[in-house]
Specification:
This protein is mainly α. It is 47% helix and 7% strand. It has helices at 7-22, 31-38, 52-64, 97-109, 114-120, 130-142, 177-185, 200-225, 228-233, and strands spanning 29-30, 68-71, 80-83, 149-151, 163-165. It is built from nine helices and five strands; from the N terminus they run H-E-H-H-E-E-H-H-H-E-E-H-H-H. The chain folds into two domains: 7-144, Orthogonal Bundle (Arc Repressor Mutant, subunit A); 200-233. It has a three-stranded antiparallel beta sheet with strand order 1-3-2. A two-stranded antiparallel ribbon has the order 4-5.
């Protein structure tokens, strides 16, 4: 895959895909409607605040990349825009309705868990359950013309891993569960004496040291905030 898009570009394309599906009677979008869609407070992460001049510049760039075109129908007073990013006669990028719904939501809201994607994409396509979402994500991650999504390392305290799209390059700091597991449980080959040099305990020791340093810093902060009288009285 040789497509590289910025955050603003994915927002514009995501909005055009979203409105094509949810409000086809209002599609293609005028510059004003597209700007409002990009700046929506709901179903957007991060929330942006772009003016029409900025959106027009982004659209102009996407037109040059052949991802968007201007649609001027008969009697149209203002230019309107539609995406040609996928599922059109202009390119080879094709997605099923479920794949497109997931890509669109990842463009609009960033990395999400399968459960979140099932909920958010329900207005774009139908999923029977989370298992079906996971199956489609695996398809997107394993397509020969891709991959288009990647599974991120599970966040501490979270039950599900998040998925991110790859149309803006590899997510910063992203790592697969397999890579994280290898880093935590990685064990070096045994030496001639049969001793194994494991990195697992080193990682755990480093984490303990980090937590101890944080506790020490918090204790010092509390002491610094205490009044001289409180410190003298031992409170």
């Amino acid at each position: 895959m040789n497509i590289e898009l910025s955050l603003h570009e994915t927002r514009v394309i995501g909005c055009l895909i979203e409105k094509e599906i949810t409000t086809p009677e209002q599609y293609p979008l005028s510059l004003n409607a597209l700007t409002n869609a990009c700046n929506q407070r709901s179903n957007r992460d991060p929330v942006l605040d772009m003016d029409e001049f900025v959106v027009q510049q982004i659209v102009d760039g996407l037109i040059k990349k052949f991802h968007v075109n201007e649609h001027g129908g008969f009697g149209s007073r203002v230019p309107k825009f539609q995406h040609r990013f996928c599922n059109t006669n202009y390119g080879t990028l094709k997605f099923s309705p479920q794949e497109l719904g997931i890509i669109c939501e990842l463009f609009l809201r960033g990395p999400q868990t399968p459960g979140e994607l099932r909920s958010h994409a329900s207005r774009l396509c139908r999923f029977e359950d989370v298992t079906e979402v996971e199956a489609v994500l695996n398809q997107l991650a394993g397509r020969e013309d891709g991959p288009y999504v990647v599974r991120l390392a599970r966040e501490p305290g979270k039950r599900e891993s998040r998925y991110a799209h790859l149309f803006s390059g590899d997510p910063v700091g992203a790592a697969s569960d397999a890579e994280i597991q290898a880093a935590v449980l990685g064990i070096a080959d045994a030496d001639e004496n049969g001793h194994a040099a494991s990195s697992r305990f080193g990682l755990l020791e480093a984490r303990v040291a980090e937590l101890e340093a944080e506790v020490a810093a918090l204790k010092k902060l509390v002491e610094d905030l205490a009044t001289p009288e409180e410190a003298a009285s031992g409170r």
